[in-house]
Amino acid sequence: RSGDYAIYALLDRHTYAIILCDGMGSGDIAREESKACASLLMRLLETGLEPQAAINMINSMLVFSSTGTIAAIDLCIISLDDGSSKFYKCGGADTYAKCGDSVTRLDARTLPAGTASDDDTLFFTVPSSHGSMIVLVSDGASAAENTGTYSIHKLIKEYEGTEPQELAQKILAE
Q1: Looking at residue 18, what is its pLDDT?
Q2: Per-residue pLDDT tens for 158-168?
Q3: Mean pLDDT score, 19-44
Q4: Which residues contact 7 (CB under 8 A, 6 or more apart)?
């Protein structure tokens, strides 16, 4: 059983948020830690806290917790006005943004929340157009990629459909 947890919500009539958290380890305990982290982050965003400040707060709470919990955080904020996306990455696997025939890989070379300083979160802005896709990948999928048997980037680039679930199934099948 996975230690990942994903949540998404409309923050206001102009902004949508997607969060993927990966608690370290696997099974129910890691999943519950991921769920708590993602849910708290979403609540902070819903109160109007800026994304970086909300991630910094989660990071500080994890650093000073007695449980030693750490979690990779992928946060995507989508503007419903112009379709642009802002990504905040604190550890975790790479993220991919497909716009037309172009696929951008957002590298995740940071430490997860609970081990990182507040300045360790990576920030990316990605423009989009009609039909663009955002692919948040867990480390389970990216670990298989490291065996050299397939490339997530290539699968996304070659995908000609518009259904996210179909693309997800293709990635998982590989």
Answers
A1: 95
A2: 998 888 889 98
A3: 85
A4: 18, 19, 35, 38, 39, 42
User: Of 151, 134, 133, nearest to 142 (Cα)?
Assistant: 151
Please tell me the least confidently modeled range out of 8-12, 24-28, 38-42: 24-28
H-helix or E-strand spanning residue 104: strand 102-106
All residues at 6 or more sequence positions from 36 whose CB lies less than 8 Å from its CB, including other chains: none
Q: What's the angle, vertex CA 11, arms to CA 20 and CA 83, rounded to 5?
A: 80
Summarised one tens digit per residue, pLDDT across range 61-92 is 877 765 667 778 899 999 999 888 999 988 87
Residue pair 49/24 in contact (Cβ under 8 Å)? The answer is no
DSSP-based three-state secondary structure for 137: coil
Give me 165's structure tokens.
């679930």
Exposed/middle/buried for 108, CB within 10 Å: 0-12, 13-18, 19+?
buried
Rounded distance, CA 13 to CA 134, Å?
Answer: 20
